[in-house]
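Hi, here's the filled form for the chain we discussed.

Project: internal
Contact: R.S.
Residues: 357
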Amino acid sequence: MSIEARVHHAFRGFTLDVKFESAGPVVGVFGASGSGKTTLLNCVAGLIKPRDAKIAVNTRVVCNRPGGTWTPPERRKLAIVTQDPLLFPHLSTRANLTYAPGAADALESDSGWKIIDVLRLKPLLQRNPGNLSGGEKQRVALGRALLSKPEMLLLDEPTSALDAELAREVLALLLEVKRSLSVAMLFVTHKAGELMALADDCIVLSEGKLVAQGPPVQVLSKPRAIGVANLVGVDNLLRLNVVRHDEEGGVTLLDLGGHDLAAPLCAAEAGQQVSVGLYADEIMLCLESPAGLSARNALPCRVTQIDAMDHEVLVNLRIGATDLLARITPGAAAELGLDKDTQAVAVIKTAACHLLG
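And the returned structure, exactly as it came back:
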C-alpha cells in the first residue's frame, strides 16, 4: 500500500496546504479540531475537489489538478466510514451490507463471510438499525465498506461518537481487520491511544499544515515540540511487549529492554504489544534504590539530558533500552546534583502507567 498526497486548497479563513507520502499500511492523521484532518480525508476520498492537488493511491493517480486527472469518488476504489454510520433505517443489516452493486455477491463469497466473522455481524443480519447499539452500527458500516473491496479504507473519527467501552470494542475490531484482512487504512483521530495502537505511520496537522510525520511512538514522544501536548495528554508514550502477568500481585510486567515495568493488570497476551502513557511529573528520581516503598517500580536509570524550562527541569532518562522524560523542580535537581550521565533510580507507581490500548 502507498499513498502520496500534495494538497493546496483555500477556504474562507482556512487553507489546507500539506504534502506527504507513506507506505502505511495504516496511516493515522492526527491533530486538534480544525487542523484540517477531515478536509484532507475528504480530498483523498474525492468529496472535495481541491484547486491544486496531486493524490495517488498505490501509484494510481486519482487527482491531478488543475488540468489533469480527476477520478470521481465512486471510481477511486476507496471506502469511507464517517462518524455517523449512515445506515438506512428501514433496511435490515443484511440489506444495508448488500445495498451497493455487487455487494450481495461479495457477501456470499469466502472473503465476504470472513468479513462477517471478523466483525461478528452474523447475529445482526436480520436486525434493523433501530435495534442496534452504537458499536453494532459502526460494525455494520465497517462491513459495508469492506464488502466493496476497497484498496484503502478511509476512517473519520470512527470512535468519537461512542462511549469509552464501545470505542475500545471498535478499536479492537479495527486491529482485527488490520491483522486478519490486511486492509490498508487512512484514519483520522484525535486520540493518541488509537494512533499508537493502530497506525504504522502518522502525520500530524496543525492549522492546515503538516508539522510531523513518522511512527507514532517517535512522533508523539515530544508532543510539546509539535504543539499537540494537550491532545496526547501524557509526556511519555511507549509501545511495550507484555512479559507476563502477576495476577496475585495485580500487575502486568512490560519489557523496557533490560528491565520490567509493573503496570496495571491487563488482558493482553504475553508477547503482545500494548500502548502505555506516563506523565513526566509522576516519575520520581532518587540517587539510591529506596526501601519500604509502595511503588512497584524502582528502576536504575542514567540521565542523558537536562533542560531547564521556566520553573521546571526536564530530565531525559535511559532505562534499559527505553527513554523516558521526568519533570522535577529546580530545587530537586540541585539537591540531587543531577548532571548528564548521573546514575539514578526512577520510581514509578503502577497506577501512573496508563494503558492506552
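Let me know if anything looks off before we file it.
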